[in-house]
Design a protein that fits this description.
CATH architecture: 3-Layer(aba) Sandwich
Distance between the termini: 22 Å
CATH class: Alpha Beta
CATH superfamily: SPOUT methyltransferase, trefoil knot domain
Strand content: 25-35%
Number of helices: 5
Amino acid sequence: MTSFTVIGHTACTDASFSLQDLPGKGGRMDLLCRAVASSLFLSHGIRKDTICDIILLGPPNPGRIIRFDGSVLRSLSPDERNIASYIKKALSVPVGKVFREAGPGLFTRKGTLGDHLDEKRYAVLDESGTDIRKVDDEDMPDAFLLSDNRNFSDDELTCTRDLPRYSLGPEIVHADHAITLILNEIDRRRSGWN
């Protein structure tokens, strides 16, 4: 499985946000929805070998993780409002520190980045990191950490200081575009396509 975790620094953590105002009242929920879509959708289907976790850190209850698991996800479509409606559904479920199912392929729990990093072998996307095309196949991580439109906070940098850092090229791209580039690199390697 390939996993992506995207931090939403201002993303609303209560199901009351409006589907009509994802950037504003949703706290840039639009960015997280695009990241979910980029990680899970192919032209005519869902990537069954991919998980996308979003960490919502906005008000009123920062520290909520929502997981989209492509292997069991049902009825999700790639538009932002549909994905946001799944996020609202997950936010309406009472949670503790263990993932709880909010629907097929949709899970949620309380948690922070520090709680989350122990689950997989993560790499951080960082424009000053090693070019991902120079990473050997056996060193390619199975999980990637990205931020929304904000830089990682000092606490997040401390949590990730020992993780490998990879760059996708000379230009800084949006998180959803970065996910597409990573998946393209992984697809090319797995298929032997050069």
